[in-house]
Amino acid sequence: MASLSSTQRLVVSIAVLASFVTFLDGTVVNVALPAISEELGGGISTQQWVVDAYLITLSALILLAGSLSDAYGRVLIMRIGLIAFGVASVAVAAAPDPLVLIIARAAQGAAGALLVPSSLALITATMRGPVQAHAIGVWTAFTTAAQLVGPLMGGLFVDFLTWRLVFLINVLPIAVNLFLLGRLRLPEHPRGAKVDWFSGILCAAGLGALVFALIEQPRLGWSSPAIWLPLVGGITMLAGFLLRQARVPHPLMPLDMFRVRNFGWGNLATLFIYAALSLNGFVVVVYLQQGAGLGATEAGLASLPITILMILLSSRAGAWAGKYGPRIFMTVGPILMGLGALLLLTVGIEFNYWWQVLPSMLVMGLGLSITVAPLTAAILGSIDESRSGIASAVNNAVSRVAGLLVVAMISTIVGGMLDLAGFHSAAIVTAVLMIAGGLVSWIGIRRNPVEADAAEVGA
Q1: Are residues 119 and 42 in the same domain?
Q2: CA-derived radius of gyration, the chain
Q3: Please, is 197 exposed, middle or buried when counting C-beta atoms within 10 Å of its C-beta (0-12, 13-18, 19+)?
Q4: 176: domain range?
């Protein structure tokens, strides 16, 4: 971080910690799902809801949070989000039954929605060009590591303590970040409270209804009114949301941003790549416990090679993308991850982690390391600083919606049961989604003019 000023280093630290708690909590739950199901009851449907209740509010409200960040100031919104996230985490840990747990998880997601766009917006508002790419690389390394180390930490808590403590892991980073926020002296210029609350309600209700239909469909069937009515209602509300964005003066998701080449194509690539990451993260951790018979800690350790590679390479990949442009990295990285997913087809009835899973983790870790920082820099670097909050929110919303929908469809993807055949089906779908993300990047991504100019000056 030698190229960053002291204020910029503080900004990156705050952004990392704020996003860390959100991403950690989004993934740490996967390894705890079997233990939660065993104690509180419920099968794969309850497990899906524990994950998706968080993602529904995070995905839907992150757009609203992006507007709030620009309207009221990033530091204020982040401070509110941190406090609310801590309170919701305690409620999750104390949940006596699945319903309370799911409601508390939804509250966590709502609080998390306030954190991610405001954290990245702090970076994009204070840095540009190669410095911004380097900072985003650092942010990516640590926040993605949070997503990947989550299963390991969760496994240790599940095996040796209790799954309930898994949700209190973030208390310390929340406290530290509140302290750092008090030290940050950053001039902000809030634009006023012009926030489209009705659009936020349409988006949240539409996603919730759609996800309900997708999760419960294997149990009730498409012909059930309890399925097709929410499905039609959800699609209608989401269509209304998009139509409203084209007409209101201050939209939550300004559609004109998608006319910016890297922003539009980059978000399409994000949709494919993060759907694949969410599918793989859910299926691998749960199958290794329920199918391969590993303990929670062992299942969490399975993804450790990805974490190590992310920490070692992400910052460097961000700097490379600032120098050479993001297109090649966003193409090669997802295709590598797709090949890594196909290596999981070697998993058989006679399970061996070292020969059947580790090669996949190494290849996927390499691909992920060279993808995420260039992807983030390409998308956010293409949008003017004055709209950095909403740009960050839109990109994060796309990634969370991708994960939300694919988790809702897991029962369909695996054929109703996460056995060996279902695991192989999920690996194939993961590979197809990853390769699609790489091809979309090759077709659509170009170098941002600001990055090109900065690179020429640096040369």
Answers
A1: yes
A2: 21
A3: exposed
A4: 6-183+250-458
